[in-house]
Structure formats: C-alpha cells, structure tokens
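2024-03-11 09:14:02 INFO worker-7 job=invfold-0412 stage=load source=structure_tokens
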C-alpha cells in the first residue's frame, strides 16, 4: 500500500498564510478532505482533478460524524491515494487530530503533520498586539469553551483561567462565555478585564471588537452571530 495522509494546517483562512509545504502537498494530493474554515480560496491550490470532500463540523449545523471522517481517510489511503486532511488553524489545536491519527495507525497507514498558523496568533496580529507582555503577561493558555455536549466543561481549571497575569484564548466559546465569565468573576478576576472578540479572523469580513469581560458576556447573552470567533482576555489585551 502506497497511500499517505498529510495533515495540513491551513491557518485561519487567509490563503497567503499557508506555508510553502502546505501548498506543495495540496498541489500533489489526489484527494483533499477539508474543514469548513479551510475552504474557499485555499482550495485553489489543490491539484486539478483532485477529489475535494467537505468534512467540516460547525456548531448548530448538520455535520459528518468524526468516525465517518476517519473512515474516509482510511478508505482513500487504502486506494493508494495521496490525501491532504486540511484543517483550519493548526491541526493539533482543538482539531480532533488524535482521533484521526488513531484510525490511521490502526490501519497501518503512514502520515505526516504539517503545522499551520494558529488562529490565536492571527487574531493577536490583526489587533496589533503581542500575546505576551513583559512583567504583566508571562503565560499563554488556550482553552476550549465547550465539551462534547456543547456545554461549558465542568473540569476547567478556573484558578488558572482567572489568573490576572495570564493571556487566555478561548476557542469555540461564544455560547458558553457568559457562564464562564460568571465563574471567573467568582474566582476574583475583575469584570473590567480587557477582552477581544475576534470574528472571521484574516478573512474579508473580519471583525475585531475590543471590550471587557462583563460587556462581552452581556453581548453574547443577547446575540452570538454565525461567524467563527475567538475570545482573548487578559492584560495583554489592553489598548
């Protein structure tokens, strides 16, 4: 069997943020299994005639089951295909990468992992700030805003997330952020802690809002919108 899978991080959406290695693998792939946020102009780099298969998952929308995606990867590879599994941001960051690797290992299929620009770094760049600041923000932490049921995870380390000297990035947290903010304030994090709401980072309809924890929580209680978004908070987010 000569099938091979390249897990490619496509970055936050701007095709100019693709790495040279990512573009090379897209140009040589027989099939590209892509996430929703990795579609559009990024797919223009795919080889003419390659199978383009959308397998993305979006909250509140019908989405393929993870076992189906893993099975597709194995089946394409068993047909001696070169496959790109195109994931948004970096595939190793809240991208269900582990489950797909387990499926490939179980089938004896070789693979590689090509990192991409994480959306958290692209969001900070869009705002024009660093994710760390000397003396005031010496630690960066990434956290998912929901568990497998879509609810706020019950096992979050709230002491760490309420650390006023940390830079925190919340992925997939629009629906649960008001509840998270209540828990953070109860742990002592000030309600006026600077926060950034970054929607559709690096795309043509990117929107960045600079606000505070309590104001953003109030906003998301009323309307969460349909755009993919990141929430960043901490001292680094000050103007």
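2024-03-11 09:14:09 INFO worker-7 stage=emit residues=239
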């Amino acid at each position: 069997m000569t099938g091979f899978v390249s897990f490619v991080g496509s970055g936050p959406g701007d095709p100019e943020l693709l790495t040279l290695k990512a573009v090379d693998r897209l140009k040589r792939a027989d099939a590209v299994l892509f996430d929703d946020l990795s579609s559009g102009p990024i797919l223009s780099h795919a080889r003419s005639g390659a199978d383009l298969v959308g397998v993305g998952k979006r909250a509140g929308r019908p989405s393929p089951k993870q076992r189906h995606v893993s099975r597709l990867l194995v089946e394409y590879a068993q047909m001696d295909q070169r496959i790109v599994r195109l994931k948004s941001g970096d595939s190793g960051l809240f991208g269900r990468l582990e489950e797909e690797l387990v499926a490939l290992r179980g089938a004896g299929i070789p693979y590689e992992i090509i990192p991409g620009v994480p959306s958290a770094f692209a969001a900070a760049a869009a705002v024009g700030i660093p994710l760390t600041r000397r003396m005031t923000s010496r630690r960066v932490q990434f956290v998912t805003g929901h568990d497998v049921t879509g609810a706020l995870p019950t096992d979050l380390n709230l002491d760490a997330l309420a650390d006023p000297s940390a830079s925190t990035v919340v992925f997939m947290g629009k629906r649960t952020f008001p509840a998270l903010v209540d828990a953070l304030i109860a742990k002592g994090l000030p309600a006026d802690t600077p926060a950034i709401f970054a929607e559709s980072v690096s795309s043509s309809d990117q929107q960045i809002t600079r606000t505070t924890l309590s104001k953003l929580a109030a906003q998301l209680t009323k309307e969460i919108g349909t755009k993919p978004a990141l929430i960043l908070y901490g001292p680094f987010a000050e103007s």
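2024-03-11 09:14:09 INFO worker-7 stage=report msg="The radius of gyration is 19 Å."
2024-03-11 09:14:10 INFO worker-7 job finished
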